[in-house]
Design goal:
The chain is mainly α. It has one domain. Helix content is 79%, strand content 0%. It is built from 11 helices and no strands. Helix 2 packs antiparallel against helix 3 and helix 6 packs antiparallel against helix 7. The longest helix has 30 residues.
Length: 262
C-alpha cells in the first residue's frame, strides 16, 4: 500500500469513531467539559481565594488560579486520553469486536491502532479547546498563551493514549483498568505538580514526579502560561513526551496485531 492508501485507511478508522461519537457525545459532557471547569472554579477560584489571602505573594508569584489552570489543562488531557484508550479499546477487541470486523476489510491492525490513537487526540483537542476558553473567561490566561498551550495538551494526550491503548489491547478483561486508574493515573494527577510545586514533596518523591510524563506536561504548560519557560527544559519535556508517543505506538502495533490475530 502507498502512503496515501495507509492514510485513507487510518481515516476510515477515525470516521468510525466519529460516527459513534455523534450518538454518544452526551455521555462524555461531564467528564470532558464540566468536570475540569468545576475543578478550576472550586479549587482555582474557591480554594484559591483562601490561598491568595494567606499568601499575598501567590504561588510562584501568581494567583493560585493562574498557577493551577495550566496543570489542570494537561491533567484533563491525561484523563481524557486514558478514558478513550481503555474501555473503548476493550470493547473494540473483545466485547463489540468492531476492530475484528475492521481487519476483515483491507484495514490491518496498524491502521486500527493509529486511527484509535488519533481519535483519542481529537477527543483531547475538543476538551482542551473548551477548557482553554474557560481559562480565558476566568482570567487565568489570554488568547496568545492559550494557543501555545493547546499543542502541549494534545501532545500530553497522545503520550498517555499510545501506551495505555497498547496495555488495554493486551488485557483479557477490564479488571486491570481499576488498578491503572487507582495506582497510576490518580497518584500522578495529585503528585506531579498539578496542584502544588513538586518541590514541596519529600526529595525522593520529587524524583519520582520528575519521571512521570504528566510532570513534563505541567512543566511545559505552566512555563508557557507564566512566561517562565526554560528552552533547554522545554526541549527535554517535549522529547520525553514524544518518546512516550513513539514507544506507545510501536507497542500498540504489536499488541493490536497479537490480539486481533487470535
Amino acid at each position: 500500500m502507498t502512503f496515501i492508501d495507509h492514510t485513507r485507511s487510518i481515516m476510515r478508522v477515525m470516521e468510525h469513531h466519529a460516527f459513534v461519537y455523534r450518538r454518544t457525545w452526551q455521555g462524555s459532557v461531564f467528564s470532558t467539559f464540566l468536570n475540569p471547569v468545576l475543578y478550576l472554579a472550586a479549587l482555582g477560584v474557591g480554594l484559591g481565594a483562601f490561598v491568595d489571602q494567606s499568601n499575598p505573594m501567590g504561588v510562584e508569584g501568581v494567583p493560585y488560579a493562574t498557577f493551577l489552570a495550566p496543570g489542570i489543562l494537561v491533567a484533563t488531557a491525561m484523563n481524557t486520553a486514558t478514558g478513550e484508550s481503555t474501555y473503548p479499546v476493550m470493547a473494540g477487541i473483545r466485547w463489540l469486536k468492531t476492530y475484528v470486523g475492521m481487519i476483515l476489510s483491507p484495514l490491518d491492525p496498524r491502521h486500527v491502532a493509529t486511527g484509535q490513537l488519533l481519535w483519542a487526540g481529537v477527543r483531547v483537542t475538543l476538551g482542551a479547546v473548551v477548557f482553554l476558553g474557560v481559562m480565558i473567561v476566568f482570567g487565568a490566561t489570554d488568547v496568545p498563551h492559550a494557543l501555545l498551550m493547546l499543542p502541549i495538551a494534545i501532545l500530553t494526550g497522545l503520550a498517555f493514549a499510545a501506551p495505555i491503548q497498547a496495555f488495554s489491547a493486551a488485557q483479557q478483561n477490564d479488571a486491570p483498568f481499576a488498578t491503572l486508574f487507582r495506582f497510576v493515573i490518580m497518584p500522578m494527577f495529585i503528585f506531579s505538580g498539578t496542584f502544588f510545586p513538586v518541590t514541596q514533596l519529600p526529595e525522593l518523591l520529587q524524583y519520582v514526579a520528575y519521571a512521570t510524563p504528566l510532570w513534563h506536561a505541567v512543566s511545559l504548560s505552566r512555563g508557557i502560561a507564566l512566561e517562565m519557560l526554560d528552552p533547554l527544559v522545554a526541549l527535554i519535556n517535549v522529547a520525553y513526551l514524544c518518546v512516550f508517543v513513539a514507544a506507545g505506538l510501536a507497542w500498540s502495533y504489536r499488541s493490536f496485531s497479537r490480539r486481533l490475530a487470535e
